[in-house]
Write a structure and sequence with these properties.
mainly beta; Ubiquitin-like (UB roll); 18-stranded antiparallel sheet; four-stranded mixed sheet; 10 helices; 31 strands
Length: about 650
């Protein structure tokens, strides 16, 4: 036996007697709560902010990409988790025996010391249902002055003529059958010259009823009118925009607005498409107000779109306090976040954040660049975390770790209207972690035997394909997010003889329904599920327990491969303060979660199911958002009750200051 191991036996003898079989799993899982996978959603992914998820207050998303943006939404799963592969550096026999006992109890050592609460549940709908602006506010004069039309046929005949058919030329919108339908009352019958003009007016009216208000039809001159068997030509002039003039913007490039209107105003100009484009811009967080008018252009059928817009304040600072982190690294979290939503005038977003607990530090940065006029975005994200276990008695083991994540996310809306959006996206992600322990005890850092780690290190190369869908009206929002994750053998990913390792497949699905029952009275229903083809490394597991999953239990009490989560919450106003735009709501709730193929953190023989009910208070105002929840567990667990979380108490306070 080496001198180093003798020191281990002497200094750890008493500790190992006191530490229960689940001790290491508690320590590790608590540490396991630090890393941010920036992907949402916007997102952020995202957010689907799903910020965690469909909950209005929940695409998301202090740290996930929007990726919406979307940071990590899916995590691999398997029904049975294999024991971690052997480590090159051997541990003392007693420690190895404890590891074997923990594996037999389905309690792996140290699931993940880098998990953050938002990583599991990125929001996928906004805090409040934003009203869709009415058309009359955006487009007060939908009918422009009548443009000059080409020469029309003079009154060359008296009496009547009989027309066999009309030949409508110049149209790119309607079929001959549609024109035949609107002119059928003038065919195969004797009509006067005035009735002939009515036939061309019927074609014009067809355009106008479909929203083509700058298009029209006329009967050109130099036609021969026979008393019988006439074939009359009707010429269509399809209207278009001569130019788009944008005024009122300061930092935001006018081309940002102009390009988004241009794709909706291609010839022939349709006022309905123009109104939808204006509504989308009004819902854009960069735009405070926007309105437009049409003016006649110089040529027949041409118009000028005159747009007036103003910007919102795009630089914001946010300070938040909460107790949503794992007690093993310190549940009380302080965070500051700076966001510039229009960094260079292109509508590009830069977000920088720093979060801290007594046992962890986390730095995150993301940059999102619009890449086309259809609101496609490219997001680059980076996160660095260092953590150490501070919860007694496990702090004696000196468990410490670092992690970093890199990700690139491409998100492109395929369908985008004021009431509905469907977007596709792909994320390439690199996740690395390194966990060690015992350095302060033996003077040498040993690799911590986390499941799937090799020499304490885990390296993942992941491709994620996600789909976001949101449908809403003035009374409700329905949103869903699906994500497929593929862990691939690339860029020196961790590959072991047995799972878990860097190769896996997982699917994650999220859904949320928000219903406005009365002013400031909301019903929120959400669900979240995860599946995988094998056991997962802790970085990819699903956490159950905490304010954003199942209240009444400590953060990430269960870390599992397969999971299902459901929650229902009512928000009822009890106090309004109009001076600050504030409302205080009481929030009764019921949460349920179940999982398999993972481990428990902080308790022995934890159940696979968690359920709770409780009551909360939610304050929302222009600057301050605060929440307090009291969760009552319906399924008992043998928790140490070292924190407010384990007493079912959670709080969060967020102060936001725009500049």
């Amino acid at each position: 036996m080496t001198q180093a191991w003798k020191q281990v036996w002497i200094r750890l003898g008493l500790l190992m007697i006191l530490v229960e079989v689940e001790a290491l799993s508690v320590a590790n899982s608590a540490l396991a709560e630090t890393t941010v996978d920036t992907t949402t959603p916007e997102a952020q992914s995202t957010q689907i902010q799903l910020g965690e998820i469909l909950e209005l207050d929940a695409i998301s998303v202090p740290f996930p990409p929007a990726s919406v943006n979307t940071a990590q939404l899916l995590q691999p799963i398997e029904a049975a988790q294999n024991p971690p592969p052997p480590q090159p550096l051997q541990l003392p026999p007693d420690i190895e025996r404890q590891q074997r006992q923990q594996n037999q109890n389905n309690s792996p050592v140290a699931p993940d010391i880098f998990r953050r609460p938002n990583e599991n549940n990125p929001p996928i709908v906004p805090e409040k249902i934003p009203p869709i602006p009415p058309p009359e506010e955006l487009f007060p004069s939908p009918v422009p002055p009548s443009p000059t039309t080409p020469e029309v046929v003079p009154n060359q005949f008296s009496g009547t003529i009989r027309i066999d058919r009309f030949n409508v030329v110049g149209s790119t919108v309607f079929s001959p059958q549609e024109f035949a339908e609107v002119t059928k009352d003038f065919v195969n019958k004797s009509i006067t010259f005035a009735q002939l003009l009515q036939a061309s007016e019927a074609v014009t009216q067809l355009y106008r009823t479909k929203g083509y208000i700058t298009s029209g039809a006329f009967i050109p001159a130099n036609q021969t009118f026979r008393s019988r068997g006439s074939i009359i030509t009707i010429q269509v002039v399809e209207g278009g925009l001569e130019s788009i003039q944008v005024s009122g913007l300061k930092r935001l490039n006018p081309n940002y607005v102009r390009s988004r209107l241009a794709v909706a105003t291609r010839k022939p100009l349709n006022v309905n498409k123009l109104l939808r484009a204006l509504q989308l811009l009004q819902l854009n967080p960069l735009i405070k107000n926007i309105s437009a008018e049409l003016a006649a252009g110089a040529n027949a059928g041409s118009s000028i779109l005159v747009v007036t817009a103003s910007e919102t304040k795009t630089f914001t600072a946010e300070i938040s306090l909460d107790n949503n982190r794992s007690p093993s690294i310190g549940s009380f979290q302080r965070q500051i976040q700076l966001n510039q939503a229009n960094l260079s005038g292109l509508g590009d977003n830069l977000n920088v954040a720093y979060a801290n607990t007594d046992g962890s530090n986390d730095v995150e940065a993301s940059y999102t660049l619009p890449i086309n006029a259809y609101n496609g975005t490219l997001q680059f994200s980076y996160n660095y975390t260092n953590s150490r276990v501070i919860e007694e008695p496990f702090d004696t083991l000196d468990i410490q770790g670092t992690s970093q994540d890199f990700s690139i996310t491409l998100r492109q809306p395929i369908v985008q209207t004021p009431n509905e959006e469907f977007a596709l996206g792909v994320t390439a992600s690199r996740r690395e972690s390194d966990v060690g322990f015992l350095e302060s005890l033996i003077g040498q850092r040993l690799p911590f035997p986390s499941p799937g780690a090799r020499d304490g290190q885990t390296r993942l190369s992941i491709l994620r394909f996600f789909q976001d869908w949101t449908k809403r009206n003035s009374r409700q929002v329905l949103a869903a997010r699906s994500q497929f994750s593929f862990g691939i053998d690339a860029f020196d990913a961790t590959i072991n003889p047995n799972a878990p390792d860097g190769q896996f497949f997982s699917w994650r699905g999220q859904g949320q329904w928000v219903r406005l029952l009365a002013p400031d009275t909301l019903l929120l229903v959400r669900a979240d599920a995860q599946l995988s083809d094998r056991a997962l490394v802790p970085l990819e597991q699903f956490g159950l327990g905490g304010q954003r999953t199942v209240r009444g239990y400590r953060q990430d009490l269960l870390l599992v491969d397969k999971a299902f989560l459901a929650s229902i919450e009512l928000r009822y106003p009890i106090l309004r303060v109009p001076q600050v735009g504030g409302v205080l709501q009481i929030t009764p709730f019921v949460d349920f979660g179940t999982g398999s193929g993972g481990t428990s953190t902080g308790v022995a023989n934890a159940p696979n199911n968690l359920a709770s009910t409780g009551l909360g208070l939610l304050w929302q105002s222009d600057r301050i958002n605060a929440r307090f929840d009291w969760g009552i567990p319906l399924i008992d667990v043998d928790s140490r009750r070292n924190s407010l979380q384990e007493d079912g108490l959670y709080f969060s306070v967020v102060y936001t200051q725009p500049f």
